[in-house]
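Amino acid chain:
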Amino acid sequence: MSSRLPDDAALQQLHAQAVSQLSPTTLARLRAARHASQRPSHHGWWLATAASLVVALGLGISFTAHPPLAPPVQVAATLADDSDALLDENPDMYVWLGATDLAME
C-alpha cells in the first residue's frame, strides 16, 4: 500500500472543483470570516505601541517634575571651617597630643 500524496496539479484541480460546488452565500461568509480574523492583529500592534508611549511619557514627566537634588556643597565647606575654629579655641588638644605617643606615629 502506497501512501503517496497527489501532486500539486491534482490538488489544485480538487480545490477548484470543491470551490465551484460552494454556493455564493457560503463563499461570501468564508471571505468575510477570513477578513475578520486578520483585522485584530493590526489593533494589537497599535495597542502595544500606545501602551509603550503612555509609559514612556509617564516616566519622562516624573523625571522632569522631580529633578534630582544637587549635593549640598556649602554644608561640607561649613563643617571644615568649624573644625578649624574648634582646634584654635581649645589649646588643651595640642597639650594632650604632645603628651601622648600618637603625635609620633
Summary: Helices lie at 8-20, 24-65, 73-89, 92-99. The longest helix spans residues 24-65. The chain has two domains: 9-68, 69-105.
